[in-house]
Write a structure and sequence with these properties.
- By secondary structure, the chain is of the alpha/beta class.
- It has one domain.
- Helix content is 46%, strand content 12%.
- It has a three-stranded mixed beta sheet. A two-stranded parallel ribbon has the order 1-7.
- Helix 1 runs antiparallel to helix 2, helix 1 packs antiparallel against helix 6 and helix 2 runs parallel beside helix 6.
- The longest helix is centred in the N-terminal third of the chain and has 19 residues.
- It is globular and about 50 Å long.
Amino acid sequence: MKLSQHVLHAIDDLERGEFDSALLHACIATDATARRLFSRDESTRRAFVACVRKYYWIVEPMIGAGINLDETRFSNIQLKKKNPPDLAEIVYEIFRCSHAHGDEVPAEFSVVATSGGLVSSWMLADGHLHMPDRILWALLAVSVFCRTNSGQKTAGEYFLALGGERFLIRDWWGREDDFRDFAAQHNRVRVKLEGLERPWS
């Protein structure tokens, strides 16, 4: 299946509220994008994480502006490979690897439906991270706007949205330079989250 098809299938699944399936397609599209960006000799993990980090400037406004993902480490989460992890490492190890290997995502992690406005709700506790479903749209935006995917072709009215504006996917493949200023306008507040390992009362 082509990268572009995974993006569209993810959107179809999102519209049906099938978050697990949508996340699998979004992660596969991110994997494919990462392989195009970096050497094929690079490990899948390193390439995936590096790709998501490279495009935190897209991810941040798409998930609901406010969190500085470059500096935030989720000290409440313990992973097998990297601690304390950033968001890219969590998405890779917990969501991408679980789905790709046919395992269930641990109950301590989930994607939660979000509606209305630009504000997203996160649920955080010791060992728990429940993210807004906008993370799916953010991953898809990375694949769509990434310059290396400029040759992708799609039809139909599929779109990504930010700040009330719609970006028809068929017209926006690879146009990260055109999207950058718009994304920055919707990402002016960037807060580093700290102290997440503290017990909640």
